[in-house]
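Appendix B. One record, verbatim.
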Amino acid sequence: MDEAREPRSRNGFRHGDVSYVTIGVPHLARARAFYGSVLGWTFTPGASDAEKGSSVDEIVPMVGLWAGELPRGATLTGTVLGFRVDDVDEAVRAVRAAGGSATEPAETHWGGRESEAVDGQGLEFYLHEMRDDPRPAPRNGAAEGDVSYISIMGVDVPRARRFFSETLGWGFDVGQPGGTRVTDVVPEIGLSERGESPRVVLGFRVDDISAAVDRVRTAGGAADDPAHRPYGLESRCDDDQGLEFYLHQVND
């Protein structure tokens, strides 16, 4: 295992951190081929349904690809985040009190308890009951292929701040108008009003962004030329099935 990943938790390490990321794709085999060639991902069959899902090996946080219907019958498209909570029953009550909805907690195949939730603006997410982990998790990834940043877009930012403050205990560093950054959460998360409906867009860490942009284009995706940002270099991309993401070459 890569030394940059070995001592790190792959499921966050405290209440409110990201515990798992599920990426819904139309075609599983195409997604595996695309992200394998672009980010070097390797895969293990999903524990719940190997024909529909694959877990990405080693990257932080844990990520899974999913194609087809979920067990409850809905079709997953786009990205859905899971968040670790100390007490899922209390978290469910907090979500409902804040104007969202949440299913009754249920046991999972990995031995914990989870609830499927929706905030008051239509953003779907999961609650995963996990105790604090003594191992840290990187804020912007530690190795190529890790998640470097998570953008929650298309939301009323003041309303989202109130909701997640009350449900996950998030704090915020208010930035430019129409956006805010979540403090003390891993990976780093930003809220933005850009877009017509709530969605999650992932950024991925790469060592050489120019080479990664070439790999995106060769694999059938689209990528903007890299642009300078305060934290490093960034390219906005679409995979070969139309899912938006970003590449980040981060200044350490």
